[in-house]
Write a structure and sequence with these properties.
Layout (H helix, E strand, L loop, with lengths): L8 H4 L5 E13 L4 E12 L5 E16 L9 E4 L5 E4 L6 E16 L5 E12 L2 E14 L4 E14 L5 E2 L30 E2 L3 E15 L4 E14 L7 E5 L5 E6 L5 E14 L4 E11 L4 E12 L5 E11 L9 E2 L17 E12 L7 E13 L19 E13 L1
Parallel strand pairs: 14-20
Antiparallel strand pairs: 1-2, 1-23, 2-3, 3-6, 4-5, 6-7, 7-8, 8-9, 9-12, 10-11, 12-13, 13-16, 14-15, 16-17, 17-18, 18-19, 19-21, 21-22, 22-23
Length: 419
């Protein structure tokens, strides 16, 4: 939100101002897992004095299956849901849970230049079945050195609430059983453990997120611009994923029971982003590098490259290449071992484990016949690679592909018009 891109108001606003409408629809799919349909619309009013006001409305329709965090059971399993659906899981199959959800979001932004300074204020609200987020942000930019250097500082704050369908369970205890069903969230219905269940805390739990940003961009030549931004994020509250579990295995690698995961209730993140833009005779090259670290001992590096190639008739094609790699958090475990003392914190969520992704794709922009406005179509493929055979895998688990490569595809169709 702190880096939300805006239109160059002074350049685009005419004597009577300009209204910009942007609409897009995202189609996202993971192989055999999550599917997302996300329509979005944004309207921006730019006034002759450079002031702009915008509002954005988005809807996410999410369905599919998500890994529960458990490892393959090592034996054939047959389960029956509350709705009577019978599911058979092979010994080497990674447990997943079907779910569906609907999320709505609203963002509003305002900014206005005052001499060399441009303040901006934004607000955000989103809601889904078991999660709500409310937040705001304030930034201030200053154009210095004959407007060749821009310095930006900002702060944002979010107040989020988590309210799982079956309440908040105590970490590292046997999950509370639910009826499950087709509208359940990941982890609502999981394999049975011992008769004792984890206690339930209040039905909802809050989380506060504070973001602080400082950045600078510099026009070096008529064709070249560099930028650097540092972001510090402080999270405090309920940070555990309520639907994720860990498998407790015996010495042979077979599942004895499952426990809910548990994460620390604070997280301090730091990211450093460097960007470069270079304008060729007609084309434009974009590049960025991002380093990230947090006090959960997770580190990541991201390289992102784009090249906007201009074509005839106001068309363009922009290929995209992105590489991302992260280390695992200090409390990431592929499983726990029965009889050993429980750690203070533990998760088997692959998003906190060793992870590597490669993304390739491109965007094609064009004008449809004589109609106003610009259309864009972006298609991308991502290969998500985890550690398929972690060192701590036990017994029969060493024979399984615990974190197989995931094939992920997305298509975004967009339309933009100004009048």
């Amino acid at each position: 939100m702190l880096l939300a891109s805006g239109l160059p108001a002074a350049a685009r606003a005419g004597t009577n101002g300009t209204t910009q409408i942007d609409a897009s629809t995202l189609f996202y799919g993971e192989q055999g897992r999550v599917k997302v349909l996300e329509p979005m619309a944004r309207i921006t009013r730019i006034y002759p004095n450079g002031q702009s006001i915008s509002a954005q409305l988005g809807i996410d329709v999410i369905s599919g299956a998500s890994p529960s965090g458990a490892t393959p059971a090592g034996v054939m399993q047959t389960t029956t849901s509350a709705s009577g659906t019978v599911t058979t899981v092979s010994p080497d199959q990674i447990p997943v849970t079907d779910f569906q959800d609907l999320r709505g979001s609203l963002d509003v932004d305002w900014k206005k230049p005052f001499g060399i300074f441009t303040p901006a204020v934004g607000g955000h609200f989103s809601r889904e079945k078991d999660y709500q987020s409310v937040g705001g942000n304030v930034t201030l930019s200053a154009d210095l050195m004959q407007k060749l250097t821009t310095v930006t500082v900002g702060v944002g704050m979010n107040h989020d609430s988590t309210f799982p369908v079956n309440g908040i369970s105590t970490g590292l205890t046997v999950p509370i059983q639910t009826g499950g069903g087709d509208d359940s969230r990941p982890g609502d219905a999981i394999a049975e453990g011992p008769s004792e269940s984890g206690s339930t805390n209040p039905s909802s739990s809050p989380k506060k997120v504070i973001n602080v940003l400082a950045g600078v961009s510099r026009v070096l030549t008529r064709r070249w611009m560099l930028g650097a931004h540092v972001t510090r994020t402080l999270e405090d509250g309920y940070l555990t994923e309520p639907y994720k579990v860990l498998s407790v295995l015996d010495a042979a690698g077979f599942t004895v029971k499952q426990l809910t995961e548990k994460r620390p209730d604070t997280r301090n993140r730091t990211s450093i982003l460097g960007t470069t833009v270079y304008h060729l005779s007609s084309d434009v090259l974009y590049g960025s590098y991002r380093f990230y670290q947090d006090d959960w001992d997770l580190r990541s590096n991201t390289v992102d490259l784009k090249w906007r190639h201009e074509l005839e008739d106001n068309r363009f094609f922009m290929p995209h290449l992105r590489y991302y790699k992260q280390t695992e958090s200090s409390f990431f475990r592929s499983n726990l071992v029965d009889g050993q003392p429980l750690p203070e914190f533990a998760t088997s969520d692959y998003r906190l484990g060793p992870l590597e992704t490669v993304t390739v794709g491109g965007t094609y922009g064009f004008h449809f016949m004589e109609y106003p406005g610009e259309w864009t179509i972006r298609a991308e493929y991502m290969a998500q690679i985890g550690d398929s055979h972690p060192d701590e895998a036990t017994g029969v688990q060493r024979e399984f592909d615990l974190y197989p490569t995931q094939n992920i595809g997305s298509i975004v169709v967009g339309y933009s018009i100004a009048f």
